[in-house]
Amino acid sequence: MSTRGHGGGHQARKRFGQHFLVDEVVIEQIVRAIRPERADLMVEIGPGQSALTAPLLQQLDCLHAVEIDRDLAGRLRQQHGERLKLTNADALQVDFREFGAPLRIVGNLPYNISTPLLFHLIQAADVVKDQHFMLQKEVVDRMVAAPGSSDYGRLSVMLQLRYRMDSLFDVPPDAFDPPPRVMSAVVRMRPLPESRPKPASMAVFEQVVTRAFSQRRKMLRRVLGAWAAAVPWESLGIEGTARAETLSVAQFIGLADALKDIVESGGGDVSAT
């Protein structure tokens, strides 16, 4: 979602997933959660019509921003001058590492690209201090879900491997113009330290997690097919009847590491039986 201040006059564009934030109380709540400091290196995704941009610039020396909408980008440059360092581009095509470190990222992410963008930003996690995003509440619930809950899935595991995440507060549809049809929520994401548990192969981990949740109602042993024979189930603490949604991130790391050689070799028929 892009954001709006008091300027108005811009027609929201569906193809960009634009819903402009207009509720001053919510805006202040978000800025308080971010707690910007004068010298912070901060980049805003989707500044839109400055609902967050203006109050952030009041507390920062400068602010980087990425805006896909060319018309809005022009207005933003005129409105804020050189203190707003604007990149007119699709955030999915931006290398956020190029902004420097330690980087703080904020924004109201468009519903239509929120999940791909979250995965894209993982590539820059080692230079990021924190991220504060407004997203569809359903997505935030999935991001922070614990094992065993119905919201826990591939998105939960892949993000919790890299971040500590907290859902901060919900935002109702009437805080936006035009109002979306769903509730929103603000989430804080802090990259885990270098000492965090890591899989031996990130590519194998991604493949195993994707496979595990491909048929989440089935027992994991069946979903993994021939791979299951290579898994030390007991030593990983995984019950024979376990489904993917019951495994912790640590157990997924153990599962991926146990399957690393067979997955990389392309061995085994992984079709569910």
Automatic annotation (TrEMBL):
Domain Ribosomal RNA adenine methylase transferase N-terminal, chain residue ranges per copy: 26-193
Subcellular localization, as worded in the UniProt entry: Cytoplasm
Keyword Nucleotide-binding listed: no
Binding site for S-adenosyl-L-methionine: H19, L21, G46, E67, D90, N108
Pfam families: RrnaAD
This protein's UniProt keywords: Cytoplasm, Methyltransferase, RNA-binding, rRNA processing, S-adenosyl-L-methionine, Transferase
EC number: 2.1.1.182
Catalytic activities: adenosine(1518)/adenosine(1519) in 16S rRNA + 4 S-adenosyl-L-methionine = N(6)-dimethyladenosine(1518)/N(6)-dimethyladenosine(1519) in 16S rRNA + 4 S-adenosyl-L-homocysteine + 4 H(+)
Domain of life: Bacteria
Keyword rRNA-binding annotated: no
One of the record's GO cellular component terms: cytosol
Location, primary (coarse class): cytoplasm
GO MF annotations, alphabetized: 16S rRNA (adenine(1518)-N(6)/adenine(1519)-N(6))-dimethyltransferase activity; RNA binding
Broad EC category: transferase
Role played: Specifically dimethylates two adjacent adenosines (A1518 and A1519) in the loop of a conserved hairpin near the 3'-end of 16S rRNA in the 30S particle. May play a critical role in biogenesis of 30S subunits.
Similarity annotation: Belongs to the class I-like SAM-binding methyltransferase superfamily. rRNA adenine N(6)-methyltransferase family. RsmA subfamily.
Name of protein: Ribosomal RNA small subunit methyltransferase A
